[in-house]
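Question thread 4412

I'm putting together a teaching handout and wanted feedback from people who do this every day. The idea is simple: show students a protein as raw sequence, then show them the structure tokens that encode its fold, then repeat with a second protein so they can compare. Below is the first pair exactly as I plan to print it.
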Amino acid sequence: MRRPATLHSNHKTVCGYNLFPSKLKFESKKLINSFICTGREVVLQWISSHYGIHGNEQADKLAKEVLTLHPPCFPMPLQNTQRLLRDKFRQKRISTFTDLTVGKFWFHLLDGQKCAQFSALPRVEGVACFRVITGHDYLQAHLFKIGLVERFTALPSL
């Protein structure tokens, strides 16, 4: 009868779940699977970092140093990358628009409930309402220019 293969590791490595395992973890899992497929027993044994096994404390110390110097670089699925970039660009665009509206009489339209009301409208209606509120009512200006309305008022209704 063969002795079981015993793997000593710290708790995070044994119990940890990582979406993008390192090459060492991948190779270790492959080796464990090959042991199991040949009918060999595999025992995972947890060792705390302060247990006193030669080299374990040093390995933990070096691993912590490496993580603080160089954060791990894991590949990211394309969907996650696209979502993160879209969110970043959206935040940047919103902050740019907010900065540009400071001092305008309609700056409050980009905040809170007013913004939610306009975003609930179909695009055509939302744009038309925004133009009327901000004094860019092109239809009213055109009608005034050709004499169909008596007076053109571009006063904000809010």
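The second pair follows. I'd like the answer to focus on this one:
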Amino acid sequence: MGFLLVTLCVTVVYMPQGSSFPIFQSDTNTASYTSGSTYSEYWTTSPSTTGYASTGDTTSYSTAGPTSASGTTSSAESGTTAANGTTSSAESGTTAASGTTSSAESGTTAASGTTSSADSETNAASGTTSSAESGTTAAGGTTSSAESGTTAANGTTSSAESGTTAASGTTSSADSGTTAASGTTSSAESGTTAAGGTTTQASNATEPSAQGDTTDNSE
């Protein structure tokens, strides 16, 4: 009893770009086909150097940066973007859902928060940190160009060094100054202002009484 060896040859007909007639070609590159995907001789995603583009996702010049559903990763290196979030030029930055991380290095942004050019800082929910180094912003607070400054809820710290601002208080250009609730400390050095009081350009001045003002008590 003999054996019959049958060799099957699969012929693919396709139309190359710029051609007016079909070309018959034997297709041996079966490994390039992926289940559920459509193989095209000419990529429609440009430029595409590695892998396939998922449906609904856009990847442009992406290096080692995974993008989840409906997210876009652009020029990202080792950055992860959560659902509906965008990571742009981020290095080792993580963005939570609906948050945006831009040019962030080792910065973490909580839900609905934005981190811009931040180094090693943490933002709580709905807080924004801009060019902050080692600064922490509580919920609803904003820290701008702060170094080692802490801002409580709904408070703002601007260009503060080692300054602490209580709830609903604002500290601006303060060095080692503490402001109580609803108080404002401006350009204060080692000065303490009680609730409802304002200390301006004070050095080593203490105002314990409420609703009082101290102005230029540096002497």
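Top answer:
Good format. For the second protein you could add a caption like this: The first strand starts at residue 11 and ends at 14. The two ends are 117 Å apart (CA to CA).
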